[in-house]
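Input sequence (92 aa), recorded before submission:
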Amino acid sequence: MITAVVFVKADVARIPEVAEAIAALEGVSEVYSVTGQIDLIALVRVHDHEAVATTVADRLNKVPGVISTETHIAFRTYSRHDLEAAFSLGLE
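Predicted structure, token format:
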């Protein structure tokens, strides 16, 4: 599984609609509205690098209201949350 973190600069007047459209894309697991130089952070989780290219370059970049993106590929996970979820039996 490949995780890509995509920083999205969006049309400020359309941030909620842009976020919802990105969240609906196949391969996008989460979208966060954030403060700072960017407007949204999208987490893309797919099986190979070609799927990252398809999801980001062919789909996400073409969502109306997306001005620019910057993509970072994760190569190692340190999150305790992810490890706990992987071994969880859903008995909470």
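Checked by second reader. The chain has a mean pLDDT of 91.
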